[in-house]
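Renewal narrative, Specific Aim 1. Our central claim is that a sequence can be written position by position from structural information alone. The example that follows is taken directly from our test logs and has not been curated for this report. It begins with the structure tokens describing the chain, in the order in which they were read.
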């Protein structure tokens, strides 16, 4: 579900209309039907980066930059995620359990993302997280102080 209740209601109505005869719809069909939900899509970018999966990141960004060519939302989402990883990693290094730490977070992590975050937490060491955060801050500063167009793909809409 999206952040805007009205948009969510419109998307649900669209799905209901599509499935009115069969009374069934697959997840793949629903994803095709439902409009852009930035928070969910930003999670895809964040997870691809945190997984160090450049191929996935490239594929996700190719779709994303058609909707929002500015790099700032992506960089901020990554900063939020890596800040969370940093806090968790500090506690993990003190001997606390990864899953327990994640389940105690507020706002809570969506249950399907708990194993993903556990994986990231186990793979990223504290010094790597600090380095990533510095790079993300530098990238945001560069994107805001440069006269270079945001993403070249924005001109190919």
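The sequence written for that structure reads:
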């Amino acid at each position: 579900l999206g952040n805007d209740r009205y948009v969510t209601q419109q998307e649900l109505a669209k799905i209901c209309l599509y499935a009115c005869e069969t009374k069934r719809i697959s997840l793949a069909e629903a994803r095709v039907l439902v409009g852009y939900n930035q928070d969910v899509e930003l999670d895809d970018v964040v997870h691809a980066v945190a997984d160090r999966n450049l191929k996935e990141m490239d594929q996700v960004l190719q779709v994303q930059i058609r909707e929002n060519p500015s790099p700032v939302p992506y960089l901020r989402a990554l900063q939020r995620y890596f800040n969370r990883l940093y806090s968790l990693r500090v506690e993990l290094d003190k001997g606390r359990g990864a899953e327990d730490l994640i389940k105690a977070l507020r706002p809570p992590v969506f249950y399907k993302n708990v194993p993903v975050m556990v994986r990231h937490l186990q793979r990223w060491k504290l010094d790597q997280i600090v380095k990533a955060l510095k790079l993300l801050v530098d990238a945001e500063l560069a994107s805001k102080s440069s006269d270079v167009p945001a993403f070249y793909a924005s001109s190919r809409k």
